[in-house]
Structures are given as C-alpha cells and as structure tokens.
Amino acid sequence: MYRLIRPLLFLLDAEKSHVVIFQFIALLYRIPGMRLLLRALYKNRTPPLPVDIMGLHFPNPVGLAAGLDKNATFGKVLSDLGFGWLELGTVTPQPQDGNPRPRLFRLAKHAAIINRMGFNNVGVARFIENLTQQRSNSIVGINIGKNRSTSNENAVRDYLTAMNAVYTHAGYIAINISSPNTPNLRDLQGEEYLDDLLEQLKAEHNMLAKSRQVYVPLAVKISPDLQESGIRYAARLIRKHKIDAVIATNTTLSRDLVQDHALATETGGLSGRPLKALSTNTIRILFEELQGEIPIIGVGGIDNDGDAWEKLLAGADVLQVYSALIYQGPAVVRHIVSGLHKRVQALGCGSLKEAVEKARGGIRLVE
After folding, report:
1. Rounded-to-5 percentages of helix, strand, coil across the chain
2. Alpha helices in 218-275 (DSSP H)
3. Count H helices, E strands: the chain?
4. Mean pLDDT of 75-83
5. How does residue 4 score in pLDDT terms, banded at 50, 70 and 90?
6. 224: which of 110, 191, 278, 337 fits an S-S bond (Cβ 3.0–4.6 Å)?
7. 250 and 176 in contact (C-beta within 8 Å)?
C-alpha cells in the first residue's frame, strides 16, 4: 500500500509529507475498525523477538529513532506499526521554531535524508500534554535537548529542566548532545564539557529515582563524526557515570558517499543508507571499549535485516530506524524483525541475544 502512495507523498515538500502520512492515518482511525486493520497489517504480523536491556522489556529489537515525532502527536499510530518501542523528541524546555525552511531534503537515489531542523518543538510542557493524550502500550523513550538560545556553559540547566519534566512520563530518557543542527551543541561531547555534564545529570537522575520512587534509565546519544579517541573518551565517561545506555549514532556532516547528488551541498545532518558504515564503526569501537557492560542502541542506515544483523554483531543490543521508514513504509519494521527471527532460528537459538553471542563467538551481551 505504501508503494502506491509514496510517489504522491514525494511530490510534497519533504517535511510536510512526513507529517501528512501520519495525519492521514490518524484521520482514518476515526473510521470504526481502521485501527484494528492497521494493527493486523503491521503490528500483529511482526514476530515476537524480545530483548531485555536497561531493565526494560522490548517485544522486538527495532525501535523508532528520535526525530520523526518531535511533539508526541502520533504515538498511537506509531505504536500500531510493529515497533519494539518509540523514541520521541527531541524536546527542549521552551518551545522553539527551529531553523528556517526548507530544512529537510530527500536524497532518494541514496535512500538518504539531510535535515537541519534545529530542535523545532512545542516545548516540554505541551509535549507532555500531547504524550498523555497519545499514550499507548509501547515503551516511550523521550529525547531531550537544550534550547538554541542557551549557551553550552548553561546547557546542563536545560537538560536538568527537561529531565525533571519528563521523568515520570518516560520509559527512558535520551540526552541529545550530538545533533549537528544546533550551533556548538556537539562540543558538549568533548573534554571541556562532557565529564561535568554527565556528573550533574547523573546526580539529579539519582535524586529523581529516589524522590519519584521509580528508576527511569538514562541514555546518551553520540555523533558518528567523533574521532576514535573521542568515541573512547565518551565511552569511558559513560561507564564512569553509570549511564544506562549509549545511542550510536546521530546524523553525520560527511558527504563522502553522496557527493554526486545535487542536494549534497545542503547543510545539516545526513541520515539513511550513507550513514551505515560510520555508525557501525562507532558501535564497534564503543563495544570494544565497553565490553558489553553498557547496552548500545544502534541506529544509522538500517534498511534490512542484513544491515540490522551487521550492527548487532558490531556490538548493538537493539536498533532504531527512521529513514528506512520514510523510503520503505511501515512494513520495513516487520521485514527487519522477521529476517532477524529467521537468523535466530537458523542458528538453533532460543533468543536474539543467544544468537548474536553465538555468531560473535561467545562475547556476552549486557544482562
């Protein structure tokens, strides 16, 4: 079905079309039986392939990456597409418009997207209102960032504000310090800021867990453009401060694999197929450094179960997709999970974790 409507969607402005499809489905939900039909097409046909990390139980290892639903407006629709979980946002303490349009570009030849959105969102208060209205049975990770007007010296205040606001509404909280579309944000990954930032975040996180009497895991999302030394530095601090997971990776500024495209000169982060090798290499280095002590959420250039398997073998525990959803439609989740399920069966294993450990040669994943 998506193949039939995709050419029409791609006639629209890229940013608009990404919203229109979910608005259309939300309208269809008003017709009796339509939600059951969508579930039957996607969620109910996605085989169970459970994974437990961060103290959370995911029904399958393929989640939605942050960026598609920034304002928590399509949670019910997205939860019916078969994702193992959803990551929504990025949301900032105060509303902001983001960068001027156009700011989202499709590079269809490369199954890629360039975006320079700039954390456009309705702010954390409205985000929570939307999330409450759109609550589903899916685990929801909430990705938080700082406002553009907040300096890096004061960035921790924004992260603390957002974390306090979303804490009891989130399955886990993702700290976004790696978007290339907020000026100087990526500097927070470096030696000048990262240690102190994580120390303050984790201290507040521990206080929240005690005062709210619930532990909500904390993840950090990093860039694919870090040098190996930077990746290892981030990994050591993530371990030091007992962060619960690392998300690898955000979008890249590299254009090496899309130089022939007319839109390659557009500024912003590149996602999709050309990101695959960079993100997988980052995962591999993280896994070497962390040795399975902290789970890795792998994201970047996953088009099929082969790409997914490659990232799992490199060190990822679970995965996220975004660009593939835009190019292939909702069935991509079912196809990836089904392909992984077949690989588990072919290896004679009872779980994805066991199959990956066997294929890796016995290196244990995180409990």
Report:
1. 45, 15, 40
2. 228-240
3. 13, 13
4. 95
5. confident
6. 278
7. yes
Residue 99 identity (one-letter amino acid): N
Name the residues annotated as catalytic.
179
Q: What is the band of 365 on the pLDDT scale with cuts at 50, 70, 90? A: low
Phi, psi angle pair for 186, to nearest 5°: -65, -15
Query: Rounded to whole angstroms, how far apart are CA atoms 305 and 224?
Result: 21
> Which residue is associated with the tokens 């193992």?
84
Q: Hey, what are 365's tokens?
A: 């994943």
Residue 257's closest CA among 276, 279, 274? 274
> Under a CB-based contact definition with an 8 Å cutoff, are residues 57 and 64 in contact?
no
Q: Which two tokens stand for residue 325?
A: 């959803």
What three-state secondary structure class fits 245?
A: strand
For residues 329 and 341, is the Cβ–Cβ distance under 8 A? no
On the 0-12 / 13-18 / 19+ scale of CB atoms within 10 A, 27 is exposed
**Residue ranges of domains in the chain, CATH in brackets:** 2-360 (3.20.20.70)
* CA 138 – CA 63 distance, rounded (Å): 10
For the chain, how big is the Rg over CA atoms in Å? 19
Q: Is the pLDDT of residue 346 over 80?
A: yes
Tell me which residue of 9, 21, 69, 125 sits closest to 322, measured CA to CA: 69
User: CA distances (Å), 347 to each of 77, 218, 261, 324, 344, in order?
Assistant: 34, 33, 40, 27, 5
* Per-residue pLDDT, 279: 99
Q: Which amino acid is at 298?
A: G
Q: What are phi and psi of 62, to 5 degrees?
A: -115, 110
Question: Which pair of tokens denotes residue 139?
Answer: 């685990």
Model pTM?
0.97
